[in-house]
């Protein structure tokens, strides 16, 4: 798999200095250990080694104005401790220790994660029927700074659209906060943000598809108990790789007797077989080029690189989707049996939709490698278009390169998000003194991509696909509703790939009515485009109200 694809999924941006609508008031705090504690070497019949982490909590209050109405809230910033998958059973721990003859390492705590969260509870709202939504970004290896500070938290960082945002950064009241519809819990994945991992084989314990789903399952069930929310309508909101985590959670939580009312996906990627790679390295796998084409066409439309037919963007993309799934797909499937005349005809139509020269498309064998479109569309201007959001432009670093080497949107807004969050969480939520905030970490070399879908019996040696998990969850809970959101200008998780995978969700026809789709003229981080943020908020809030009975 192309490492650039993984890097693009992890790359997301930064924050600004807070200007709170109302200063929050710290109420209680428990300090976070600066580093894992070291247990004394146990003696015979000694107490088991102490855990590395303890839960923490810092409480505060504040308010946000949404739709002209002031919403007072209680905030909690803290951590919950979870354990690596497979070691939660004491018998398993003891069996492993005895099998190694009491190796000294076996007396040390197994892998643990201290998972950070920032939760917001609306004041005066009865918990029993108040919806609660658990939100996270993806990567894998990304913290949840982006959804927190760009989309739905009570404060939002101001960034420029399609341009680089420079300091001084500014936070403003977020009039699109989801607190008008639901209580919110923003969660940092193990090792990211203020979350930490420790213990024997800690990377193996948490850095993997199934390990990650298990950690979040433990977190959510603990949170429901700690804050008395078992009876609340429950929602999961995942972005990017977080959609894979979210779909897996829908079933994993059911196994713990937690039914979700709704699963909300933003920039979804549930089947990694749809991710494009270098065609020279993976010949014969053509579907990724098919599902990426409409995004390339939307980008060429946006930058006026093609002759625009009559109608709006959506009607144009309908034409491109039809071509992609018929003539284009059939041409790619023919491979070397494609005639020269057919090849020329397809290249001409591709050029009309993408703005790339026919000669270039013939050289690529009609297959546009990941990163190549971003590099080539405006190559005569030495300009690279964005990957996370193709509306953004930046100077090409190496005009002789084959593919784009960076993402202009990430470069434009990341520093703003991270800076603003560092100020907000420390000054307003009173959390994190002396602790480094890690907006993202590199986990690709350590990540275990094997996934065990329902009924498989063992993890599969294949790119992960959680469509079966979601399908089983929907069959077992026919009231589970799914909302799919995406941006037309997102190359990293193309909107049509999300449509395609959901079309292949193995559920009965009647359950397909439980799925709804919303698309926006924005990129991967839909909320970075303010008009799209407004629409996203309204759509998600409406979805929660309709499916929870909340008013």
UniProtKB/TrEMBL annotation:
User: Where do Low complexity bias regions lie?
Assistant: 26-37
Note the InterPro entries from the entry. AB_hydrolase_fold, Peptidase_S10
Disordered: region residues: 15-50
Q: Where is the composition biased (Basic and acidic residues)?
A: 38-48
Q: What is this protein called?
A: Peptidase S10
